[in-house]
Amino acid sequence: MGAKLGYKSGIFKDFVSEKTRVSLACRSNDIMVNLNFSVPFRGLVHAGKKDSGCSFRGDGKLTYSLNVPHAACGTVHV
What we know:
Distance between the termini: 32 Å
Number of helices: 0
Strand content: over 45%
Protein name: ZP domain-containing protein
Radius of gyration: 13 Å
Order of helices and strands: EEEEEEE
Shape: globular
Mean pLDDT: 82
Domain ZP: 25-78
Largest sheet: 5 strands, antiparallel
Strand order of the largest sheet: 1-2-3-4-7
Oligomer: single chain
Helix content: under 10%
Organism: Nephila pilipes
């Protein structure tokens, strides 16, 4: 089964697969990335380069959030 992307106002804000749901919320100073897993997650998530400020290692929970600052993690204003 393929992944589905949510599309609203020209911006993709949701990604859904069999094991993962990722949603994005653009805020004034950052982008909030919410990750929901159907099984305990024990992997590595990173935005941009594997910078410690833009990554985390899962410890077996099902839900995580990652704040990606607009001026860090390789983000580019377009």
